[in-house]
Fold this sequence. Notes:
The structure is a homodimer of 585-residue chains.
Chain A lengths: L2 E2 L18 H8 L3 E5 L2 E4 L1 H20 L3 E2 L5 E3 L1 H5 L2 H4 L5 E4 L5 E4 L4 H11 L8 E10 L14 E11 L2 H21 L5 E4 L10 E7 L5 E6 L4 E3 L20 E4 L6 H11 L9 E10 L5 E9 L6 H8 L3 E4 L2 H6 L27 E4 L8 E8 L2 E7 L8 E2 L18 E16 L1 H6 L2 E3 L5 E3 L1 E8 H11 L1 E2 L2 E2 L10 E5 L4 H16 L4 E4 L6 H11 L3 E5 L7 E6 L5 E5 H9 L2
Parallel strand pairs in A: 1-29, 4-8, 15-19, 16-18, 18-21, 28-29, 28-30
Antiparallel strand pairs in A: 2-3, 5-7, 6-7, 8-9, 9-25, 10-11, 11-22, 12-13, 12-22, 14-20, 15-16, 15-17, 19-20, 22-25, 23-24, 26-27, 30-31, 31-32
Helix pairs in contact in A: 1-11, 2-6, 2-11
Subcellular location (chains A, B): Cytoplasm
GO cellular component, one term (chains A, B): cytosol
Subunit structure (chains A, B): Homodimer.
Amino acid sequence: MVTRLSNFFLRTLREDPAGAEVASHRLLIRAGYIRPQAAGIFAWLPLGLRVKAKIETVVREEMAAAGAQEVHFPALMPRESYEATGRWEEYGDLLFRLQDRKGGDYLLAPTHEEAFTLLVKDLYSSYKDLPLTIYQIQDKYRDEARPRAGLLRGREFTMKDAYSFDSSDEGLDVSYQAQRDAYERIFQRLGLEYVIVQADAGAMGGSRSEEFLHPTPVGEDTFVRSAGGYAANVEAFTTAVPDAVPFDADAAPVIFDSPNTPTIETLVAHSNAHLDGDYTAADTLKNVVLALTHLDGRRELVIVGIPGDREVDEKRAEVAFAPAVVETATTDDFEKNPLLVKGYIGPWSPTGAVLGEESATGIRYLVDPRVGEGTSWITGANLDEKHAHSVVAGRDFFADGIVEIADVRAGDPAPDGSGPVELARGMEIGHVFQLGRKYAEALGLKVLNENGKLVTVTMGSYGIGVTRILAIIAELNNDEKGLIWPASVAPFDVQVVAAGRDQVAFDVAADLSTTLEAAGLDVLYDDRPKVSPGVKFGDAELVGVPKIVIVGRGAADGEVELWDRRTGDRDALSIAEAVERLTSR
Amino acid sequence: MVTRLSNFFLRTLREDPAGAEVASHRLLIRAGYIRPQAAGIFAWLPLGLRVKAKIETVVREEMAAAGAQEVHFPALMPRESYEATGRWEEYGDLLFRLQDRKGGDYLLAPTHEEAFTLLVKDLYSSYKDLPLTIYQIQDKYRDEARPRAGLLRGREFTMKDAYSFDSSDEGLDVSYQAQRDAYERIFQRLGLEYVIVQADAGAMGGSRSEEFLHPTPVGEDTFVRSAGGYAANVEAFTTAVPDAVPFDADAAPVIFDSPNTPTIETLVAHSNAHLDGDYTAADTLKNVVLALTHLDGRRELVIVGIPGDREVDEKRAEVAFAPAVVETATTDDFEKNPLLVKGYIGPWSPTGAVLGEESATGIRYLVDPRVGEGTSWITGANLDEKHAHSVVAGRDFFADGIVEIADVRAGDPAPDGSGPVELARGMEIGHVFQLGRKYAEALGLKVLNENGKLVTVTMGSYGIGVTRILAIIAELNNDEKGLIWPASVAPFDVQVVAAGRDQVAFDVAADLSTTLEAAGLDVLYDDRPKVSPGVKFGDAELVGVPKIVIVGRGAADGEVELWDRRTGDRDALSIAEAVERLTSR
């Protein structure tokens, strides 16, 4: 049945909605695809629902082709299983929590690993039942601190989440690869360029983890890639660990006066003026004091030594210390630890180690991988306005561990030896994880193996944000006039516009719409009787159906215009030619 | 693609699940359609999802045919609009309420009148935009006090809720009729017998309201119907109000001693023994003391006078006093009101009215419609062990109002004069309401009419419980072996069972499955290699696919058995005949 605009539930808006900063947010609202209900929560109008359904169909088809079976869980889930895996706490404020009338604790699930694990535990018991991959397309909730950019970071979103179950690591590799391949096909069908990057598993736990990023300068994620094929998001990038440097011949550390040098910049200038040598920030060791808040509420100070030419990357620090929350130490923290001389902190002092092994402060000292054995540094001497040079790692100080929180820069070597990396930006469009046995262990999912022994199942988790992808497609496909949908997900295949004043234009447009619909196309027919052609064209450009047929003055002579929304080309054609062109693919 | 049982996510259970009392609950779990997650909250397995999708398709097709357009709202909604209509309070404990990280109040929507009203207000402004009917198929939440019977009364359920918007009452009638007709078609297509009964609008407010009930002795709703076509649920039944009776010639009330007669039964026996006349319970006036708890927490006593042969119907009382909560008065209530002499309460006393107008107690006195002007009663005299006779309504006492809380009985006259009613039981399968202007007024939904004046929009609300219907179909279609799906909603059209030990049975079964699938049927092929035919047959009966093909010993000779799950008939046929029979409709 042809959809007629005269009674279609649509009202396009002339004005940009307040607070909508990104194009997809602005245009999806203006063109009548979604309506905001609360911060980061949207209702779907008929146009939006059509696009969403098309994306879901692509996802379902590729899941079926990959042998995944569809199930469906409620959004409202009881606390217990999330408690067992620690995520009831770990998710912090991101979780919408509530109680039922009996005081039972529930949550709106941000993801369903626990539920899927328990379902399989509930029903399956043998390795013969595996492998199994099951998925759902479902509405999820996360109480984001700053919901923004419309559907790109909302508090409710539709996600396809799949989970694989295997009795062996080799099996997991196969299941993981099947989902990874399916994701490639999905993004290819949706016309979404992607890069697969190594990712950190974050709060999900587990081992192998890759993200599908759409590369775009406006992406909110940064990733690195080398010409030799290495790609990782910044959080997952690992620094190539340098070989140990021999230090037997090195001179002992020397303390020197360094008045007014609390910053690396002032320290380097002072060193070049007063020491023998030509120093850069990379020769200095910066010691950053951080405060971690652990899940149990405990606050812990840690000090991290990184080369002075590097900055702390907040996201890398977040991941490195997760699930603890990281912040910079406060004045109060320094006051409570008088051994820490702000601006002059270092791992060594003439009276013995201040940080690291046998530390007098009791504060953990972690270092960047570049602070390897034998490296020599100019660094704070733990005395006001004094630094020391020739302070050698592994001789004068020993760290309690290695941590990756320094920023990654273009030119840094890829850890796999594939050359220097470049930085790029992207938007996350999918994520595949090898969860391993974390959830199965926490929830007791075991099966009998070939030898009749109970083995813990190994799992994978695979997510695509359906509504997020919709927004990204909108973000990538628009101009100043409105949306321009790719044919694969357009709400309609063609929009027919009756643009004349004469009845004949309407009669021809109605006939043509019926013909096209009968040929299997989804047709939106703008039959509004008293709306000017200009307004109709403007609405068509805003709504973004890829092909538009204008039935106007030439209608009486059997002539129409075929308008390509993307190229802007308008071709005058006979009706038969227009039908031929539209139905030929 | 043929679905093969060997890797289909299904595990049938031999044992009935604990606490599952009704057949649909028991069988849907045992046969692997759903799994419980919490009280009244279920996950959907592949089989269940298939049946649900088929029901949703029928609903979507009929909604489209009725001109309704699909939208979708989130389950998580902000408090404000529900506050404006009073439902944030009215819903009481039925509502799942929660707060976000900023302390904002939210709810899990039990229904979406407010959201739809605001959406239309947001986008439309003229009578020319109307009529409009929009709907969604969406997961809703109600925190039922006693979730039970599986999907029949869960705390999460999938519902199709439609809302119509019109600028005139006549328009509403048309929109209402279109949905009502669509509901009839939906139930006809699903093979669900139904009765349309007048219903009380309950917490929804509004005027015309009808329920679609499936008549069944195990239904939880009681309804009445007359041979003349009247049908109503018990809550909506109205008592025919008798004409006033002349009472000029009646004697004045007379007090008499009635020791030990606190019940109607003892009072009638005493009256027949000591008064002149032949009395039945219907001659006595029973005065029931009820305690109402209002939304604001205020507790109010009311007394209701009903004929002594009637009982209070709890559901009718609930509806009559909604949104207040009704309970029987407590001992404490009586102690606080010493004028109420328990067992001997009446509306009249020798010292003046105790109840009703100018009541000394200050308690509201309401009466059943049968206690009309001029009716004469034996009733309490407000003195211990004393009653009075010849107490005449409209002369000796005056009620503060009429209320319908007495039970309805077979033989009671239908209010429309269509004869005596009979009582029957049914299950609610759909509900259509004329909401009128309640929501539009509360939320300010107005449009300009033909004369450029703002008029408040009038609305309808139309609901079908998709998951409830699925359960009801399961409830009506099973035997001691398992489920028996009607073809219109069966998860598969045919189940092919390879029942032989020889490879030939498997080869033939696989070929046949492919042939049937290619002919457009959904095929479930039981290809499990080491499972006995008996177990396979048992599973097939439990799962309930309507047609089963057994490929066994005769396979080598090209012979199979076609088994009708409902009738139990098994016909030996050639493969070609079996294909012909299965694909001929």
